[in-house]
Structure to design on (733 residues):
């Protein structure tokens, strides 16, 4: 009761209700007049509608002149009194209370002991008035125009569309205020994202749409809402079911739900959600696209009717939008609505398309992220209707012509991403799909054509085609022709080693290099194609080149050295010195936390160091003798134990529980064990205490090593898992 006494001095909604009654009375009067005129006749004929409209306008003008104009001064006076009482009263109370507390001239007691407590009592009284005024002003701030100001600035900050942004924010403000009235503790931890999630649980269509819109907007702005959605399986099931709705009015809801499901897809297991594949596959059906074209001009805007104080809030919002400085919004608009679309494409769909393709693109994105799980891959491939839809662009005889348009190229790119994930699935699932693609002459022809037509087909498609063809080439059961493999390898080398064409993107070059690395791991591939480019690859190791390209070149050279017959003198005189220079030039890492901005650069430097050490070990084991290696070390200024010191320093710098550090330490230990076959190096390693440094690293990394050993099913993890640090330590001792 106390809060209502403090804050309900204006009778809450009495003013608003009074105006609503006036409006309702006026509408009723017009309605009665219209009905009366409709039954009147002139010369026995009904009065035409046009004349009825004209007469109504005349009656309304007379009514306004007779009734409202005389009342205007009275209404204006009442509104001024109410405004001063509602908004000026608290300010006056706060001012008077402050003045009296500061002044404190309450008069004297005149020796009357009964007035001894008068001053403290007045102090307490004015403090209570001050607190009441402050609380009232705080409450008033959530009402027009204070609440409108908050809503206008919030919409600009969150870059929400005007169409529904204000409606949603007003709902959020009123809902939060109502909860606070009932139980102030209930709004603890309340956020807009939590409110949006609560709306999804509602049975109301409008509430569902509002919640989906807002969550999709947050996701496009890179917010992570997985922790709010993943714990509730029923909530995710509801989102998935929404994808399968076919009504034209549900298109916007499906798009928003698709955005949210794509955000969660990496953590979703299809087996836990009945009907999930059917709902997702509806996004790829042609009927969805046709429905859009037929109904694009018939979209319904599902918004709540605004009455009472909410209508007043929207009136204040419109006023503030016109008078507030637009600097903040202009800054947002400079980035443009296209920037919001770009974020949406990057984080939700990862494509350029939109319009009628939007649902298809979202469906492909969901499938791509679902396919990161092996069991999901099996469920997708087992569905007899879904897989043909995914493969449809690849097997289309109009793919190359269609890829010239961005909308079709986006669909093809999304389809290729899903296929690449599926064909990499271990076991029979991936093998069967690779065979299906390899036996499709049209599919292989399309992939080869995309590689050759670099100007017409986008570079994104070239990257996807390289990835798919590489996976097919690595599987001997696909029976891919040697000509296709050699053409693929030549194209990869051509793109990766191209230094003149500025049109080739860094991503395309990196993809060409990485897929080439995988392809060379297959010893059956004709190595003569790569050997001709040995010199160019060696030059890429130079420090003047891009770090990513240097890493990839080192990986390619490692596989060449492991699987191809090379000129040992060439390796000794050109490649090995370049590698040793790279190992020697790696600078000591700055202290941890010294500069967080260079984290990516530090990671790349460590990966490059790992690649150089791995390449050194392969060359030492497969191509050159101990004497040749010793000679190369001497020529590079690493003789007299300097190389041993460098290896020990690398081990000490990498005594951290990270996978890449574990790999580096193991490589240093393996190189040391090989070098200790020569007696002079044995002495150097003992003098430098290399074994002690390795033992220290083993203690720090033992837990990580056991985890890698357990999870070492991936090719890279297998290389890291063996040999064990304990085995290397035994060899050194």
């Amino acid at each position: 009761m106390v809060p209502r006494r403090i804050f309900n001095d204006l009778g809450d909604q009495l003013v608003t209700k009074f105006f609503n009654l006036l409006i309702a009375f006026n509408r009723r009067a017009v309605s009665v007049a219209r009905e009366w005129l409709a039954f009147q006749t002139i010369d026995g004929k009904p009065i035409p509608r046009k004349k009825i409209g004209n007469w109504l306008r005349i009656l309304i003008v007379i009514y306004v002149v007779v009734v409202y104009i005389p009342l205007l001064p009275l209404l204006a006076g009442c509104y001024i009194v109410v405004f001063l009482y509602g908004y000026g009263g608290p300010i006056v109370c706060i001012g008077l209370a402050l003045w009296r507390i500061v002044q404190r001239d309450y008069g004297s007691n005149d020796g009357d002991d009964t007035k001894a407590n008068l001053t403290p009592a007045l102090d307490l009284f004015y403090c209570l008035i001050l607190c009441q005024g402050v609380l009232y002003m705080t409450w008033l701030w959530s009402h027009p125009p204070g609440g409108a100001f908050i809503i206008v600035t919030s919409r600009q900050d969150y870059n929400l569309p005007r169409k529904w942004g204000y409606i949603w924010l007003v709902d959020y403000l009123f809902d939060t205020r109502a909860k606070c009235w009932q139980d102030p503790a209930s709004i603890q931890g309340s956020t807009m994202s939590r409110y949006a999630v609560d709306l999804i649980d509602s049975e109301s269509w409008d509430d569902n749409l509002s919640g989906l819109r807002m969550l999709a907007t947050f996701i496009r702005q890179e917010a992570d809402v997985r922790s709010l959605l993943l714990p509730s399986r029923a909530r995710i099931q509801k989102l998935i079911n929404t994808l399968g709705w076919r009504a034209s009015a549900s298109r916007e809801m499906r798009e928003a739900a698709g955005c949210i499901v794509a955000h969660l897809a990496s953590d979703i297991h299809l087996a836990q959600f009945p009907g999930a594949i059917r709902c997702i596959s509806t996004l790829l059906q042609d009927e969805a696209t046709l429905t859009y074209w037929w109904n694009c001009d018939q979209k319904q805007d599902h918004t709540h009717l605004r009455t009472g104080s909410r209508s007043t809030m929207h009136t204040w919002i419109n006023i503030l939008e016109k008078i507030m400085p637009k600097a903040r919004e202009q800054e947002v608009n400079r980035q443009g609505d296209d920037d919001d679309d770009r974020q949406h494409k990057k984080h939700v769909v990862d494509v350029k398309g939109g319009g009628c393709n939007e649902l298809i693109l979202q469906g492909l994105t969901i499938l791509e992220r679902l396919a990161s799980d092996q069991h999901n891959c099996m469920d997708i491939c087992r569905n007899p209707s879904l897989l043909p839809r995914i493969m449809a662009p690849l097997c289309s005889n109009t793919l190359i012509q269609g890829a010239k348009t961005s909308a079709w190229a986006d669909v093809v790119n999304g389809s290729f991403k899903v296929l690449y994930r599926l064909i990499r699935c271990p076991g029979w699932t991936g093998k069967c799909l690779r065979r299906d693609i390899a036996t499709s002459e049209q599919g292989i022809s399309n992939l080869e054509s995309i590689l050759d037509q670099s100007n017409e087909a986008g570079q994104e498609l070239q990257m996807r085609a390289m990835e798919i063809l590489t996976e097919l080439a690595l599987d001997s059961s696909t029976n891919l022709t040697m000509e296709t493999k050699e053409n693929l390898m030549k194209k990869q080398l051509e793109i990766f080693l191209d230094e003149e064409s500025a049109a080739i993107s860094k991503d395309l070059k990196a993809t060409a290099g990485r897929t080439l690395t995988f392809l060379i791991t297959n010893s059956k591939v004709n190595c003569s194609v790569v050997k001709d480019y040995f010199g160019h690859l060696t030059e890429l190791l130079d420090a003047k080149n891009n770090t990513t390209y240097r890493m990839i070149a080192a990986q390619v050279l490692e596989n060449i050295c492991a699987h191809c017959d090379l000129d040992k003198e060439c390796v000794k005189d050109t490649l090995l010195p370049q590698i040793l220079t790279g190992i020697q030039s790696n600078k000591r890492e700055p202290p941890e936390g010294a500069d967080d901005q260079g984290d990516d650069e530090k990671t790349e430097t460590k990966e490059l160091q790992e690649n150089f050490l791995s390449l050194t070990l392969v060359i030492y084991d497969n191509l050159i003798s101990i004497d040749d290696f010793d000679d190369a070390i001497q020529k590079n200024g690493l003789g007299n134990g300097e190389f041993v010191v460098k290896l020990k320093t690398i081990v000490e710098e990498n005594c951290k529980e990270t996978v890449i550090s574990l790999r580096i330490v193991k490589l240093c230990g393996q190189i040391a064990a090989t070098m200790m076959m020569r007696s002079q190096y044995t002495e150097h390693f003992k003098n430098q205490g290399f074994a002690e440094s390795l033992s220290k690293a083993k203690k720090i990394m033992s837990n990580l090593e056991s985890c890698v050993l357990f999870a070492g099913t991936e090719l890279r993890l297998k290389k890291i898992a063996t040999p064990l640090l304990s085995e290397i330590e035994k060899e050194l001792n």
